[in-house]
Give the backbone structure.
Amino acid sequence: MSSKLVKLIAVLMLVLFTFFSFSSQSEAATSKWVTKGTTTSKVIALTFDDGSDGTNIQKILDTLSANNVKATFFLTGSGAEKHPQAIKNIVAKGHQLGNHSFSHPDFTKLSAAKIKAELDKTEATIKKITGKSTKPLFRAPFGTTNAAVLAAVGNAGYTHTIHWNIDTVDWKGVSAASITNKVVNNVVPGTIVLMHTGAGASGTPGALPGMISKLKAKGYSFVTVSEILKLKQPPSTGAKYTVKAGDTLYSIAKKHGVTVAALAKANKITNYNLIRVGQVLIIPSKNASPPPAATVKYTVKAGDTLYSIAKKHKVTVAKLAAANNITNYNLIRVGQVLTIPN
């Protein structure tokens, strides 16, 4: 065989190898990079990144609960190991979870194998603590990503990499007023807000009540990231419970806030009286929180006053006025369409 022919064959093999390698990579799953929801509806997703200390988690949860707001928490595995009860509390309040890596490295400096290891370790940690999956949402540490990262993350089962369009920079210790103003003054339909749970974000707990109030007054509803993107969450694997002496199916169901029927169904138990000490039961997830109520509208009729409309819909006059940017309570007109606040 001549040297020219050998060289030709070598070149052809190289071309074919490159082609098939490229084809294989192009067919790989790639995580979709998202900065905001593509919607014209006045919805906003509050998101919180949780690192090692999680100092403000309970304060944040208390405010969210008081205002009936659901949020999305991006968790690090190392942080979850340090404050597992706080992570359980997040889930107990019905908030959504996402994966924020295990040790918070810059993913653009890691191999695909190390990226997968970071994600898998966090997923296993969160599932062990809560029974919940962090899939399909990922947030890159430091917000740094590239095509290789998105490919590795997608192959690990995270279909969406969630960035943001409003960064509160709360981790710098900025004031509550600064955080509130940044969000309220820059909000648009589909906004995703970045905040943090740690001690460094000292202004965040104080910012939330006023921020939520002002956003509601502007007609915004609060949703999780999956809701803003209209994604389906994977079903929970369910928490585990080991039966102890004296337990009954009824007492276990009551302790975990689920029905006996749901508990029996999750464990394929037909006789409610037949459970044994040491038996490991799967605790089914409680019913998911209902989606935010649709915005109620009311068209002013002859004889209506702001007071009569507020009374009819069981809201305060002040709240009704704020939701519609009304400064003079006596100035409403027939045919005017009012937003009735929740």
